[in-house]
């Protein structure tokens, strides 16, 4: 048993670190964090990662992935987070791609994988519906066969970045026979198809990430279906597991905690710093110690995947604890910013530094409330763990 | 990075599991506690080679590291072993093994490893809180001897043949300098003993010593320089103790889920109720988080990481907090059975409460963590 990095791993770490330093510039960071430039700047960043061969590092090698060990994946994500750089927007490279390289036809792979890897396709995910959230199998969007096409009608909701998307991968109902899970198919739909309408949903961070996407007799070629008809649930379930593995956010937690420590250590007008208060220290320590545990929980999962076990119930554990910790960190971040007047809008005189960190804290905190809801709500994760880990 | 156990470690684990399955039911454990002679299965532990695990091959031991010790301790935790492995082998045994007084350790260790003699470490004083450098017992040199005066509390393993006892020959009461560590006979005539049965089935002894004369050759380090030896041994002993706690926590969440699947109310197994399921998931989660910190601390020692002390403080603090939480939940979910002394559940709670109290409870260790992190 050991956690120490080998010389080769240390070399890899410094390679990643200097790449991040050289390429993730403050200018790029500012553009990624501004809604008006978010899309183009994200694509630019992902293309930069792709040129290095890192954007789709988790893919099989034959499709352009890297044969990284668990340790390397950990080093990569840690360095990415430490540089404050975002990971790739997950819907394409991390969410639809595993379904494509696992279940798509060769022709579909050739058509979709390279542009997905190069960030030339912006994907969004069409799963949730107004009547199908945690109970995803209750989805009603129907696809009716018409010659070589399906006619798709229905509504998807909470669709992240649909306003930017070129394509949407959808679960649609192709049959009402048998159990609800049995009549679902996995379809790729061009967002420019006639009959697709995207309506914005403004979230409690006052931003536009989410959308409702409606389909009114949208014509979709049968050749856009992945795998067998009525087998989509199986493919989607495999995908959800990958989605959850990507959700612990421990790198984000560590970086944000470092920022919190830095901010809390500053003192204003000779007042003692927040970090010198035993109450604040105790709160911060509670979160930090949990994050230390989360970090090794993730390493244990990665290491198990490395030695051949598939991610299963453990990814639910990571999703559950990871999102709880993200929220705990955001809550602290907000308190620190608020203690310095960061709650005030600029025109009411908050100091510039605290005003911007206040904005950041407010946005993270507010949108962070979604993390325990998406990807299968934490209540659903607890149900899954109860069944599979505890046999209840 | 590799968190798997070696083949040897898996065999060691297996040997403990098998032995405990045959010899350590709650009833059998109750019998051992009732006898109160400190013997228990100690002879079998010796026969199975477990008493030699943390000692170097040069000293005649198995040559195990912290992971090997934790493998044993975790399995012990699952059945609440009351034999004094932690106090005699992990604490006192390691103090001797790492002592600079080779003659003394060569004289004492073989009998310890053979199970013929038991030892203890008297670290706690009445006002000492959880501070290792708090030593007010005095050691005054008199020719080739030292004269010891003072009191120690909660000296674990009342059946120990000898006690390792820190006393101060110089420095102020909380100074790391000036602490010497003496080996004294546990039945020394100058020792006033008061035996105490602890709630977790262990027997301890409070001791007072008035003008107890020890030869200087029974000192484990050079005079006044025992602090770093003590601190090093205690660090690893804390990890081992937390391994025991994680074993106990694993027992608790599994036993609770099993009980919930069989106990019927309102015409259904109570394990079908979502409100209870989610609480059991949180017990499981807490256990896995503590196990993750346990692995983190083990790696920290093996890799000689500069974060070692922080990792250990976090581990001990979280094991204190979550261990108690898991045990309280287990009692609650067992209903009336949980508060019955005849059932095992409450005994795990008692043990986890005692584990929390040793060398700094959750709050104290969190304060240590803060000092290491934010000072």
UniProtKB/TrEMBL annotation, chain A:
For the Acyl-CoA dehydrogenase/oxidase N-terminal domain, which residue ranges apply?
7-116
Q: Report TM segments.
A: none
Q: Which SUPFAM superfamilies match?
A: Acyl-CoA dehydrogenase C-terminal domain-like, Acyl-CoA dehydrogenase NM domain-like
**What's the cofactor?**
FAD
Q: Please list the residue ranges annotated as the Acyl-CoA dehydrogenase/oxidase C-terminal domain.
A: 230-389
The entry lists its GO molecular-function terms as:
flavin adenine dinucleotide binding; oxidoreductase activity, acting on the CH-CH group of donors
Q: Determine if Zinc-finger is one of this entry's keywords.
A: no
**Entries under InterPro entries matching the protein:** Acyl-CoA_Oxase/DH_mid-dom, Acyl-CoA_Oxase/DH_mid-dom_sf, AcylCo_DH-like_C, AcylCo_DH/oxidase_C, AcylCoA_DH/ox_N, AcylCoA_DH/ox_N_sf, AcylCoA_DH/oxidase_NM_dom_sf, Mycobact_Acyl-CoA_DH
Keyword Oxidoreductase belongs to the record: yes
One GO CC term on file: plasma membrane
Ranges for the Acyl-CoA oxidase/dehydrogenase middle domain? 124-218
Keyword list (alphabetical) reads: FAD, Flavoprotein, Oxidoreductase
What PANTHER family does this protein map onto? ACYL-COA DEHYDROGENASE (PTHR43292), ACYL-COA DEHYDROGENASE FADE29 (PTHR43292:SF3)
Record family assignment? Belongs to the acyl-CoA dehydrogenase family.
Q: What is this protein called?
A: Pimeloyl-CoA dehydrogenase large subunit
Source organism per UniProt: Zhongshania antarctica
From TrEMBL, chain B:
Keywords from UniProt, A to Z, are:
FAD, Flavoprotein, Oxidoreductase
The UniProt entry's sequence similarity note says: Belongs to the acyl-CoA dehydrogenase family.
Provenance organism:
Zhongshania antarctica
Domain Acyl-CoA oxidase/dehydrogenase middle residue range list: 121-208
Acyl-CoA dehydrogenase/oxidase N-terminal domain residues are 6-116
Acyl-CoA dehydrogenase/oxidase C-terminal domain spans which residues?
A: 239-368
Q: Which InterPro entries match?
A: Acyl-CoA_Oxase/DH_mid-dom (IPR006091), Acyl-CoA_Oxase/DH_mid-dom_sf (IPR046373), AcylCo_DH-like_C (IPR036250), AcylCo_DH/oxidase_C (IPR009075), AcylCoA_DH/ox_N (IPR013786), AcylCoA_DH/ox_N_sf (IPR037069), AcylCoA_DH/oxidase_NM_dom_sf (IPR009100)
Keyword Flavoprotein tagged: yes
Tell me the cofactors it needs.
FAD
Instruction: Please name the GO terms that the record assigns under molecular function.
Output: acyl-CoA dehydrogenase activity; flavin adenine dinucleotide binding
Q: What is this protein called?
A: Pimeloyl-CoA dehydrogenase small subunit
Which is an annotated Pfam family here? Answer: Acyl-CoA_dh_M
């Amino acid at each position: 048993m050991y956690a120490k990095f080998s010389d080769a791993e240390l070399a890899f770490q410094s390679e990643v670190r200097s790449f991040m330093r050289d390429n993730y510039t403050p200018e790029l960071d500012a553009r990624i964090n501004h809604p008006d430039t978010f899309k183009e700047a994200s694509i630019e960043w992902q293309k930069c990662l792709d040129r290095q061969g890192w954007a789709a590092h988790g893919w099989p090698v034959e499709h352009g992935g890297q044969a990284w060990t668990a340790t390397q994946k950990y080093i990569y994500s840690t360095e990415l987070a430490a540089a404050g750089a975002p990971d790739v927007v997950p819907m394409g490279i991390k969410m639809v791609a595993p379904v494509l390289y696992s279940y798509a036809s060769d022709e579909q792979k050739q058509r979709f994988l390279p542009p997905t890897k190069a960030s030339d396709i912006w994907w969004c995910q069409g799963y949730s519906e107004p009547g199908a959230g945690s109970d995803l199998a209750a989805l009603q969007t129907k696809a009716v066969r018409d010659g070589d096409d399906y006619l798709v009608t229905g509504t998807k909701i909470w669709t992240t970045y649909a306003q930017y998307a070129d394509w949407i991968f959808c679960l649609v109902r192709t049959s009402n026979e048998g159990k609800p899970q049995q009549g679902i198919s996995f379809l790729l739909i061009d967002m420019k198809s006639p009959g697709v309408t995207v309506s914005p949903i403004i979230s409690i961070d006052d931003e536009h990430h989410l959308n409702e996407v409606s389909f009114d007799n949208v014509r979709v070629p049968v050749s856009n279906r992945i795998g067998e008809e009525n087998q989509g649930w199986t493919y989607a379930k495999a995908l959800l597991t990958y989605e959850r593995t990507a959700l612990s956010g421990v790198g984000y937690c560590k970086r944000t905690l470092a920022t919190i420590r830095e901010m809390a250590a500053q003192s204003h007008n000779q007042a003692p710093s927040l970090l010198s208060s035993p109450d604040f220290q105790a709160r911060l320590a509670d979160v930090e110690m949990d994050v230390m545990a989360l970090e090794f929980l993730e390493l244990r999962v990665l290491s198990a995947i490395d030695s051949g076990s598939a991610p299963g119930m453990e990814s639910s554990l990571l999703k559950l604890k990871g999102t709880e910790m993200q929220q705990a960190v955001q809550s602290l971040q907000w308190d620190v910013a608020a203690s310095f007047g960061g709650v005030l809008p600029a025109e009411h005189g908050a100091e510039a530094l605290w005003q911007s960190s206040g904005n950041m804290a407010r946005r993270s905190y507010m949108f962070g409330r979604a993390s325990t809801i998406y990807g299968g709500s934490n209540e659903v994760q607890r149900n899954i763990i109860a069944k599979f880990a505890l046999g209840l | 990075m590799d968190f798997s156990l070696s083949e040897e470690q898996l065999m060691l684990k297996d040997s403990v599991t098998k032995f405990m399955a045959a010899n350590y039911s709650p009833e059998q454990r109750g019998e051992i506690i009732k006898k109160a002679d400190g013997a228990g299965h100690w002879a079998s532990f010796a026969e199975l080679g477990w008493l030699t695990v943390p000692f170097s091959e040069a000293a005649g031991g198995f040559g195990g590291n912290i992971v090997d010790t934790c493998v044993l301790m975790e399995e012990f935790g699952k059945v609440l072993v009351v034999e004094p492995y932690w106090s005699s082998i992990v604490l006192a045994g390691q103090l001797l093994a790492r002592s600079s007084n080779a003659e003394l350790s060569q004289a004492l260790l073989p009998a310890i490893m053979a199970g013929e003699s038991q030892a203890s470490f008297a670290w706690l004083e009445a006002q000492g809180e959880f501070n290792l450098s708090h030593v007010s017992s005095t050691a005054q040199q008199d020719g080739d001897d030292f004269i010891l005066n003072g009191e120690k509390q909660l000296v674990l393993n009342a059946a120990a043949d000898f006690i390792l006892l820190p006393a101060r020959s110089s420095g102020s009461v909380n100074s790391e300098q000036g602490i010497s560590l003496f080996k004294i006979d546990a039945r020394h005539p100058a020792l006033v003993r008061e035996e105490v049965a602890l709630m977790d089935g262990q027997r301890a002894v409070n001791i007072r010593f008035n003008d107890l004369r020890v030869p200087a050759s029974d000192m484990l380090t050079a005079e006044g320089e025992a602090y770093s030896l003590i601190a090093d041994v205690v660090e690893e002993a804390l990890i081992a103790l937390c391994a025991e706690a994680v074993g106990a926590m694993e027992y608790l969440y599994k036993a609770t889920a099993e009980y919930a699947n069989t106990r019927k109310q309102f015409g259904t197994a109570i394990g079908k109720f979502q409100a209870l399921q989610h609480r059991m998931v949180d017990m499981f989660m807490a256990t896995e988080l503590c196990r993750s910190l346990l692995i983190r601390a083990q790696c920290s020692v093996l890799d000689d990481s500069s974060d070692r002390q922080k990792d250990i403080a976090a581990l001990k603090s979280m094991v204190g907090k979550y261990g108690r939480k898991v045990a309280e939940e287990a009692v609650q979910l067992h209903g009336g059975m949980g508060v019955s002394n005849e059932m095992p559940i409450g005994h795990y709670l008692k043990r986890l409460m005692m584990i929390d109290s040793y060398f700094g409870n959750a709050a104290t260790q969190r304060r240590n963590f803060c000092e290491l992190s934010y000072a």
